[in-house]
Amino acid sequence: MYAVIETAGKQYRVELGTQLEVDRMDADPGQTVQLDRVLLIADGEELEIGRPLVAGAVVAADVVRLDRGEKIVVFKYGPKTRRRVKQGHRQDLTILRIADISWGGRSAAADAQATKDAERRAAAEADREAAKRAAADKDLAAKLAAEADSESGTDAGAATAATGTGAVDTARSGTRSKGRAKSTASTSKSTASTSKTSKSSPSTKATPRAPASRTQAPPAPEEGAKKRRTTKKDE
Question: Residue range 28-50: average pLDDT?
Answer without folding.
Answer: 90
